[in-house]
Amino acid sequence: MKLDENQQKAVEHFEGPALVVAGPGSGKTEVIIERIVNLIRENGIKPYQILALAFNRKAMREMEQRFSLKLAALDVQSDYGKPEICTLHAFGRRIISNNHRKLNLMGMPNTWKAFRLKNTIKEEIAKLKREKANAEVIIYEISSRKTGRCYYIGQTTNLRIRQKEHLADSSNSHLRQAILAEGPESVKFTPIDKVEGRYADKRETEWIEYYRNRTVFNSHLEDKAPEREIIDAPVTIYKIESQGTERCYIGYTTNLEQTEQNFLDIPNNALQEAIRSEGEEQFTFEVLHEEVPVAEVPDRIADEIETHKNRAVFNQSNPLSQRY
């Protein structure tokens, strides 16, 4: 195989690290073999000082074979053995085996086969499920002290420890950003429910859905299509949103100017209650879609409602898909 200019650069590189990024079949293994040979022939590196790692045994055997063929073709002889070519896992095991006493291990560590590891993990998961089934589990809410907005719903058997874990470095990226933005002292952890462990996932899901549904003020009756007499008029879909809690109302109008001027008077009981509670200055009017075909209005409104519900809490709908 004839190397191209970039491959030759990688082969001849000597001081400092070199990163080669290329797709399958592009000659990465050949570059590694040529690089090893170049280190031995041109730079005086002894073979036993070279380590080549592969991700699996097949790749390792291929590298060994191609290296041997290359040396034979070049008639390269060495009194310093061969380069160390092995899998990443074998190399890691060798490090542990050679240094287990430094780690204060009583004996040589055993290597578990894949099936044994799977069975052990399966047994441990079953054990945890049995223990959890009868344990008292706390469903908790993480919310903003400033706005009252619910950020996250979770479950735990120890709220104090879970609170420390969230504040230190929550695995939920959106929650982590909210805590960093507001500061740890601006979020509060509140237990909202206690259930037996076997019911915890179902109950957590119900609480997540409850907070999602609180995010919009619309009722199902307001999602119907516009009346027939306005069927030829251009329809605008808009949003009225609280800047504090981010709760919102999704509506439509055929008279945008009038609606925008009087949006604080929209006859929706939940919206009006929020306006009285939070103050008119907290609410803004935003156009979402203009000149929407009348037949598409119900679906567009439903889509926007679902989108804003999903912004309500940082959980996914299924608590098992994003635990913490």
List the helices and strands and how they pair.
Blueprint: H1 5-12, H2 28-43, E1 51-54, H3 57-74, E2 84-87, H4 88-99, H5 114-134, E3 136-144, E4 150-156, H6 159-169, H7 173-182, E5 187-196, H8 197-214, E6 235-242, E7 248-253, H9 256-261, H10 269-278, E8 283-292, H11 297-310
Parallel strand pairs: 1-2
Antiparallel strand pairs: 3-4, 3-5, 6-7, 6-8
Helix pairs in contact: 1-2, 2-3
Features:
single chain; 324 residues; alpha+beta; Rossmann fold; GIY-YIG endonuclease; 3 domains; three-stranded antiparallel sheet; 11 helices; 8 strands; 18% strand; elongated; disordered C terminus
Explain how this protein is built.
The chain is of the alpha+beta class. It folds into three domains: 95 residues, Rossmann fold; 89 residues, GIY-YIG endonuclease (3-Layer(aba) Sandwich), CATH 3.40.1440.10; 91 residues, 3-Layer(aba) Sandwich (GIY-YIG endonuclease), CATH 3.40.1440. The protein has eleven helices and eight strands. The strands form three sheets. A three-stranded antiparallel beta sheet has the order 4-3-5. A three-stranded antiparallel beta sheet has the order 7-6-8. Strands 1-2 form a two-stranded parallel ribbon. β3 and β4 form a beta hairpin. α1 crosses α2. The two termini are 51 Å apart.
